[in-house]
Amino acid sequence: MKNAKFSTRSIWGGEKDSLAFGATQVPVVHSVSYGYDDMDDWYEVAIGNKEGHIYGRNTNPTVQAFEEKIKILEDAEAATSFSTGMAAISNTLGTFLYPGDRVISIKDTYGGTNKIFTEFLPKQQVEVVLCETGDHEAIEAEVAKGCKVLYLESPTNPTVKITDIERMAKAGKAVGALVIVDNTFATPVNQNPLELGADLVIHSATKFLGGHADALGGALCGSKKLVEAVYHYREINGATMDPMAAYLLLRGMKTLKLRVDKQNENAMAIAQYLKTFEIVDDVFYPGLEEHPGHEIAKQQMSNFGGMLSFSVKGGVETVRHLLPKLRFANRAANLGSVETIVGPSRTTSHVECTPEERAAMGIPESLIRYSAGIEDIDDLKQDLYQAFHAVSEEVATINS
Ligand SMILES: *Cc1c(COP(=O)(O)O)cnc(C)c1O
Predict the structure, then answer these.
(1) For the segment 239-288, what is each residue's pLDDT rounded down to a tens digit?
(2) 46 and 146 share a domain?
(3) For residue range 141-200, what is the model confidence (pLDDT) as tens digits?
(4) How close is the Cα of 218 to the center of ligand 1, in Å?
(5) 228 and 294 share a domain?
(6) Rounded distance, CA 205 to CA 353, Å?
(7) 235 and 326 both lie in a single domain
(8) Is the pLDDT of residue 49 over 60?
(9) Residue 163 lies inside a defined structural domain of this protein
(10) C-alpha dihedral (55, 113, 364, 400), degrees to nearest 10
(11) Interval 138-157: pLDDT, tens
(12) Is residue 233 part of a domain?
C-alpha cells in the first residue's frame, strides 16, 4: 500500500481488516457491543493485548476502516476519529492543554476553533495568544517565549490566508511545542502537514473527505503515541464517530482525488473569471499570483484547493440579491461537497463574531465564500454571469 499512488490508496487502503462474509465492501456494523464466550479472550481484548472490539464508544469495525484509510492518505503512523471536526479539535486541545499552559495560534482559524481559543480555554486558565495570520515573525516571536501547543490552519476560512507550515513547525519544535495543523481546506490531496514537520493533522471529514455533505465526522493523524493519548481522551469523553457516518465517509474518500482535482481546477477558473466583473471588489484564492500567500502555497501545496472567496460592491445589499440568483449552488453553511456551495461569511464561517470583530479580521461584510463543486465549469461560469448581470440591473434600479 505504501508504494501505491494516492488514488489507489484511497480506494484500497484500510478496508481489508473490516471486511466480513467475503463481502467486497466494508459493512456498517451497528452493534453497540461485542460478545465473548471465552472469559480469557474477552479480558485480553479488553486490556488491549489482543485485537478485537468491546464496546462501540471505543472502537467499531466500520469506524476503524475509516481511521485506517485517513491514516494511509496522510501517510501517518496512526489515526483516530471523532463525531465531528470540532470534536477532533476540542478533544485534541483538551488532551494536551492544562491550566497554566500556553497555546499560540492565528486569528483566522475556523469560527468554532476561534471560540475554543477565546471563550473556553481562557476559562480553564490556559493562556491563548492569537497572532496575525501570515505574520510569521510575530508567530515566531511568541513561540520563542515558550508554548505547549502551536495550532495552525492553512489555507484559512474564509479569506484563504496561507501560513508557512514548515517554517512554523521548526519554530514550534525549537521550544518543544506540539505543532497541530487543521488540513480541512487543503485535503491530503493538496497538502501533507506531517511531511512539512507538523506533529498532528486534523480534518473535518464532514467537508472534502466525505465530499457529499451527508455525514459528519472528524479525524486526527500523527504518531502512535500522540494519537493514542487523544484516542483515550475521546473514548472516555464520548465524541465517537457513528458507524453509518464512517461508511458514508469511507465511500466518499474513494473518489477524493478525482473530486479534489476537479475542485482545484474549477476554483482556479472561477477565481480568474470573477476578476473580470466590475461588481467584484476582491478575489481571494491562493492560486492567484497576487495573493499574498501565493509563493508559500506553491511551495507547500501541490494545488491550491477548492475554496475561494470574493467581495462585491454594494455591500450586504448586493449579496442579498446575488446569491438567490445562482441556479447551480447551495446557499448553505458547509463546504467541500460535490455541489458548489456559496454563503456570506457573516452567516457561515464567522456568524459567531460581531461585525466589528469581522472587520478586525479583515472579513468584509460583503464577503462571499465559494466552495467549488465538480460541475462543468462552463455551467458554473454561465451561472455567475447571469446572476451578476441580473443583480447589476436590480441594484441600479434600487439606487436610482
Ligand atoms: C467545518 C470545519 C471545522 C469543523 O468541522 P465540523 O465537522 O463542522 O465540526 C473545522 N475546521 C475547518 C477548517 C472547517 O472548515
Answers:
(1) 999 999 999 999 999 999 999 999 999 999 999 999 999 999 999 999 99
(2) yes
(3) 999 999 999 999 999 988 999 999 999 999 999 999 999 999 999 999 999 999 999 999
(4) 8
(5) no
(6) 24
(7) no
(8) yes
(9) yes
(10) 40
(11) 999 999 999 999 999 999 98
(12) yes
Residues of the domain holding 139: 6-253
Per-residue pLDDT at 354 exceeds 90 = no
Q: Is 234 annotated in the active site?
A: no
Which of 202, 233, 253 is a domain's end point? Answer: 253
Instruction: List the alpha helices (DSSP H) in the chain.
Output: 6-12, 39-46, 61-73, 85-96, 111-115, 121-123, 136-144, 165-174, 187-190, 224-237, 243-253, 256-274, 294-300, 315-322, 355-360, 377-399
Which residue, by CA, sits nearest to atom 5 of ligand 1?
Answer: 85
How many structural domains compose the chain?
2
202 CA distance to ligand 1 middle (Å): 9
Extract the C-alpha cell encoding 309.
472567496
Which residue shows C-alpha cell 482556479?
A: 268
The answer to whether residues 210 and 312 belong to one domain is: no
Q: Considering the domain boundaries, does residue 1 fall inside one?
A: no
Q: Is the pLDDT of residue 397 over 90?
A: no
Ligand 1 near 204 CB (within 6 A): yes
110 pocket-lining for ligand 1 (C-beta < 6 Å):
yes
CA dist., res. 25 & res. 18, Å (int): 9
Name the domain boundary from 222, 253, 284. 253
Gyration radius of the chain over CA positions: 22
- The reply to whether 294 and 334 lie within a common domain is yes
Task: Kindly report the protein residue whose alpha carbon is nearest to atom 4 of ligand 1.
Answer: 85
